[in-house]
Amino acid sequence: MITNRTFDEIELGATATMQRTLTKQDIDIFGLLCGDMNPTHFSDEYAQMLLERRKVVGHSMWGGALISSLLGNDLPGPGTVYLSQAFEFHNAVELGDTLTISVTVKSKNAADGSVTFDCLAVNQREENIITGVARVKAPTKKPTDAGSPYAAMQFHQKTVFKQLIERVKDREPIPTAVCHPCGKEALEGAIDAAEIGLIHPILVGPEEKIRALAKELGVDISAYRLVSTRHSHESAAQAVALCRSGEAEALMKGSLHTDELMGAVVPSATGLRTERRISHVFVMDVPTYPRPLLITDAAINIYPTLEVKVDILKNAIQLAHALHIKEPKVAVLSAVETVNPKIPATIDAAALCKMADRGQIGGAIIDGPLAFDNAISREAALIKGIHSPVAGEADIFLAPDLEAANMLAKQLAYLARADSAGLVLGARVPIILTSRADSAEARLASCAVAVAFAHWVREAQPV
Questions:
Q1: Which residues contact 49 (CB under 8 A, 6 or more apart)?
Q2: For residue 344, is the peptide bond before it cis, meaning its omega torsion is within 30 degrees of 0?
Q3: pTM for the model
Q4: Tens digit of pLDDT for each residue in 399-423?
Q5: DSSP assignment of 152-219, as one string?
Q6: Which domains does the chain carry?
């Protein structure tokens, strides 16, 4: 129902507030709409070179637009006509900053039906971002109960990772061995996660190189333990040793190849192996899908057997539980939705479902084989006559092999603008895998997923 406050209903001192966190999506869309393609809004390197800031900054008028939206949506609300504004911009808004916007009625003019508002935008550090006044013509009529004309046009805001970070950042930070943070993205990712209270990093790598990089980036690492090594191979061994000893509850990949890190993880005598097969899970926030989507295994097991898929599935179910998905729905994917002996993935899917029926795999609702369209769309499943408790509501996609999972995750990232976080499970500790292509938000999200899982391990019983 659409509501507003007419000129006669508005009282002096009346106020309205809203909050909004600046995301990469906000910056991209605002830049495209207004045509302001200043590279300091899109590239950390340009922000550092031209503005001496660590991260990209938002468009100043993005905050001004939030003030406009508050006036148009809430106070006075629908029917408001903007007349004038006078703003001062005090500080930049960086990616991930949360603005609190407030408007307060300053004066009313009965002669022309205008209302003047004091306007304020502050960030999460209580720093003034925008101050000023706005003058609007207030509505004189109330809307009818016709419902929102743009309900069907709402653009899905990617909030999965924001909500996850908010949920875990007040929990105890987990000690995390950061392996070889000798590149910009690796070091900044670890420090960003530490600064918002997700992890307590133990930096493992060549001391002189790390300190020189920190100085270059303007990052203060004096509060963090640094374990010096000679090279990346030794960094991997030392980081794994910290996890084996219990000094670290998570392992974070830095500036080394994944194969090199996992080479230190997998040995039975010195690594982090358990009885469970190690596997990778992508947690994805897809703009066109209404819930978090877990995709496995896209990074570790190339052509998993049925036995290996059981462990891959159990790992993903555990992670879903850690993310507060109590009974995740699992779609076991294949090219078709019928069992076909010529397509081994369909045989595996049928076996996994029967194993779930017999209690060999618990904690989830599992169905398959399902083709991608059936898994993602209830309508597509019904058209094909498939009655499935998972179709259209899947939380976990178990892919036939690494190639399928990896391509699916990257297609969602690049074609559907999905955000992703990555975690390796089945080892003694969760392993945070990040890449240089990851955004700052994605790196924070991966840390948040690891924090959620580490605390779940402390509190819950494995599946």
A1: none
A2: no
A3: 0.72
A4: 999 999 999 999 998 888 888 898 9
A5: GGPPPP--HHHHHHHHHTTSPPEEEEEE---SHHHHHHHHHHHHTTSEEEEEEE-HHHHHHHHHHHT-
A6: 15-153 (3.10.129.10), 158-273 (3.40.50.10950), 277-426 (3.40.718.10)
